[in-house]
Amino acid sequence: MSQFENVTVIKKANVYFEGKVTSRTVLFPDGSKKTLGMMMPGDYEFGTDLKEEMEVLGGKAEILLPGETEWKHFDGKGVFYVPAHSKFKLKVESPFDYCCSYIKE
Questions:
Q1: How many whole angstroms from its chain centre is CA 48?
Q2: Could you give the domains of the chain?
Q3: 12 has which bridge partners?
Q4: Distance (Å, rounded) from C-alpha 19 to C-alpha 2?
Q5: What is the pLDDT of residues 27-75, one digit of tens each?
Q6: Is the pTM of the predicted complex or chain greater than 0.85?
């Protein structure tokens, strides 16, 4: 899906890591939520409350998912999932464009 229809966008940005990671929240009529964001090169660790589907839209990064020992490489496109109540690490090599979907289970 390249665009979203009939949504509400929160204008205020979510800003993390001294501005190196930003996102905007998109709310859907069914109550679901996504964020659209960018990460600049750097090393990051994020925690989750809900399960997350991370769709990679552009850029290069290495991802270390919870419980895994090998980093996964993403270059331009792909999807990965992060369990609820966990942490994951990223080593971003080039500006990293993503869409995060929050999944209630």
A1: 10
A2: 8-103 (2.60.120.10)
A3: none
A4: 26
A5: 999 999 999 999 999 999 999 999 999 999 999 999 999 999 999 999 9
A6: yes
